[in-house]
Protein 1
Amino acid sequence: MGFLKDLVKIPFDMVKAIWKCLMEGGKKSRVQSSNQDSKAQATLLVAAPGSFTPPAPATPPILGAFDPSTLSCEKHEVTVDAIIDYVDKWGNATRREITTEEIYDYEDGVVVIRAFCHRRKDYRTFISSRIKYWVDSNSGKPVSLQNLANYLVKASQVDLTSIALNIPSTEGAEIQVFIHTAGNYTQNTYTSRNGLTYYRISLQLVNALVDYLLGLPRSRTLTESLNSEQFDEVKDILRSHLQTIKVTDTQAFLAKKILRESELSRRKNLVDFARTALAGMPAQGSVVQLLDDELLDPSFRIPAPKSFFNPQANPEQKKELDEYLSKLAAEKQQSVADIKSESEQAEIEVDDAISDELPRSKARAKKYRKSAELNVIRNLARQECHNQLLINLQEETLIFEREPFEQEIRKRVCALLTNQEISRYGDMMLPYLGNGIQFGYLVTGLKKKNRGWYPNESGKVVIDLNNIQRD
């Protein structure tokens, strides 16, 4: 049944020791004034105990109740100005003027808010359960605290950043396959200092890809209410996002697998786009021919069912899954090092922007978004979650409890990090972990609405790999 049988319960004394170490380390980090949610404090206790040396005795904070239904969380980009009354974990009440950047929405209604605090002149984290008053700075109207989560999620749905980053979410396979194939034949590659080769595309092809994505029916639905200025901003955000994407051979391997099982029209559209985007380039013929051979081969001309795949019933699919997981295992050390390197550089850019740019400036927002997209915790959690879901599929462990699964993913991510790296993120460690796991579910094809997870007859939330689906 895989690793779930081997979970070890951490004694409460060890739990307190781990937490005290994190609190001591967090005081030295650049997020030292951030606030902790009691629920979040409890869930961080999954870090491997052997990697911590407890500090001198100190009074630990009160640990809140642990709710296994709210481990992972959704992330939304949302920019709103507000004045709030906030009570920190020590009971100190302050009034803050903030500009939000992103929120982490838990299933029980608690929201972790990452915002620029105009008082501290830096980014801070606020927990919705500690907010006592919220006023929209632009309208001057108070927001019901009972409705705060809905208010922020609704605001994110019309936020230009959120709209832009949602556009490529269901076309991830097309994006990866196009970047990999075009990058290969235009020789736009580079090898990281850790030894992994990545494929990219030129700005010309990025612009073509932006136009292609914005022309899709789903994108038109998202952008139809925008004026020309707003549409141009969405386009700029999407362009910046696509410029950060680079693809490995292993990523392209799975992306092609996904496309081969999609509708014929989806595959034909990508081939037609490649033919147009590379018109006049020497690489056009090679790119189009390869995509045609790999995506429009006669064996793929009949639209496939919506299910992802069933390697238990299909030996060829089992072979492909084994090969993919083997590739991932071989490059894991290099990919982790690259994720860390990119995240560190993006955070340096944000730190520089804090002193150079106004809170609502597009330059700062762009650097903050890049940092959030490349965040090491979020991406390591996504990678670990996605890989383990596929391993469970490989081992035919198709239904398993969500709580111990997510706790194990947290342990694995913590094991990939140093004490300094863990303490650096302070109170944002758990939201990043939680959203990374949620991201891992989504890229694997698991969604709540498709019963990717649900309460079983005993009331325990389970993951069900039988319900993997691709949009």
Protein 2
Amino acid sequence: MTKPRADKVLASILGNAFKAITDEMSRTMEMTTRSPILCEAKDFVTGLYDADGRMLEQTENLPILSFSLSPVCKHIADRFRGDVHPGDVFFHNDVFSLGNQNNDVAAFKPIFCGDTLVGWAAAKGHMADIGGAVRGGYNPNATEVWQEALRIPAVKVYERGKLRKDVWDLIFANIRLPIVQEDMRAEIGACTVGERRFLALIDKYGFDVILDLEKQLFEASRKMMEAEIARIPQGEYCGESTVYYDGKNAGSTYKIRVRVKVAGRRITFDYSRTDPQTNGFVNGTYTSSASATVLTFLQMVNPDIPHNDGMLQPIEIVIPEGTILNAAYPAATTFGNHLCPPNADAIIRALAPVVPERVSAGWNQLLCSLSTGVNPHRKDTYVDILFMGLKGGSGAMDSIDGYDHIGMIDASGGVLDQDYEMFEQQTPHTLIKHELLTDSAGAGQWRGGLGVETTAGSACGRSTSSAAKARRS
């Protein structure tokens, strides 16, 4: 059978096929993981990458994970060059080799056509435990990474299709909850789905045609992003925001400062004047902070731009090591994903004067209550991040009110509420009240989104949390 010739129509078909594959991988994760943060809240990302780790397509259920897999995939492809084989599976979470957060553990599976490495399938999700000093991984007393988590630099857990049981046992001997093993097996399963579907495309169209189409997809996405950048007036624009309290020093504040430079069809986000890192866990990693930059900018441009490497080519992100957004080894960094709201706020403040129709007012800040312990009814340990109570509203935009109860900007509606009945089954808590909080929106010609008030009872008494109020438009 003659393979079809690569053209623009076929490139569009392939782009949609890639998206369908990563969506199916995502659905696989949703249906096979067991931790509520994964199967209920969908705090994970699935993706396809070329042989060098460049993004072909992703499904980011949580927007802060928008930039979290490709840097690591490139790292693994380079680190193990010449030692990658069919049937291999790699695990990774290490924040000092381009991971974004300790709890976000990824599985990578190389895709081979015969003896040729043609791509990678990957999945990354927030694990219920990752070792360290406390169950759940959020240790506000941490001052270095070893007090937060088990570090997993890129390591093979399957080699040529065979489980490396010694490596597997070493990893999970340092993680408290058995459910994490099951969730990582689900990630491997999602990668296997991606591998099958990608190979089916190669079988249908031929590898040479796929390679040519990938180049066309990258080029088309690059041009779409360049066109969006060209709509921003040329120049340099500065914005800053404040991080309140480092977890160690009462009353402490830190400034995030960004200089946005628009030159031709390229845009640069430069954080060189951002304050130094803290001595606690309120620090970011390069990958978590760059993800925050990417997701914030994506909210200002054409939403139909495919999420592949071409989309990122006109964007440069400079975050010097040693700043609060890119802490140097061996700093504690678990809070890093949650520096996204002030990071986004700095970008919004920088670009609001020149593209006011594209930006929103400030979003709600983090309010997160992690509940962990022993369930007295089931006699087992549990971890729950209580997503229902942390979701405030978004900022308003020109001519439109903000969204109610959407979550922080790094979630952007991606983190779903837990099902009420499942919440009560999986934890020892009883949900008493969960409702929009009257008058919690920021005032303005167009109001911000409403937050919520959540009240839950438990075997140990009652606790109440209210989502942060949305800022005014």
Protein 3
Amino acid sequence: MAKKNDRETNRLDDAARAGWLYYVAGNNQDEVAAKLGVSRQTAQRLVSLAISEKLIKFRLDHPIARCMELSVKLKDKFDLKKCKVVPDDLNPETSIQGIPEVCASTMEQFLKSDEPKIIALGTGRVLRACIEQLTRMDCPQHRIVSLVGNIAPDGSASSYDVIIRIADTIKAPHYPMPLPVIAASIEERKVLQDQKPIRNILQLADQTDVTFVGIGHMCKDAPLEQDGFITRNELKSIVSQGAVGEIVGWIFDKKGNIIKDSINERVASAPIKPDSEKLVFGVVAGKHKINAILGALQGKLINSLITNEYTAEQLLKK
């Protein structure tokens, strides 16, 4: 008698075959049933199972006119190299729906290149969701480097670190940064960054061909404060100095200037370069992120953007 796990595996295998026949090969349900040797009802259930178990992932290839229009306007207003705007869902002020899929598709354009690339990554919820949408592939020709530390204040691994996840998906050499985002002191940061492996990672980060980063806000529920890297009082203090956002821990004001503060003096992440000649994608959306995105755009900390309709409209109103 087959074990439960074996039966479950076989069921998912059948669902994957049914999903491929229906969505990829273009068979109707009668044809799927005939090719699998099952009833039409069973074929229908297997196709539905392929969707519910997320064995099939969809990407919308048809350019939606409104999104294209917003993309062009954003490129013109902020002198962007690339801009992709995805359709809104029912909760556009807070949702990131659709953005991970577009980000994954964009990454894959570089990953499919035979020419070796150095791809740099920040961290965050949206980028982590993006990695989950990537197609599995073998990319030994590329190198993936983290721009930001992957150690939480208590010594545990950061829950939003993406470098290990992407390396497992695309089978590429990867370079995590075994540091806290913000060191306890300037002296500690210097000692950590002076280690030979860290110097090598920072040098690699300086040679990247394309970069993908999230953008954190510096108001209520700021990621740096939520994750324990700065205190509530430190957050209030740096906000009083004009802080609106952060990228890989570097805190900036509404013009995109890195604020001169003791917090930024302790940031252990790779430096961010304004007005880079290489592509630097900000992957971000949401009402509470608007000021942070504006600062990053105006300071040219990013030169490309992946966002949604709501966020694009708000940025164009500013």
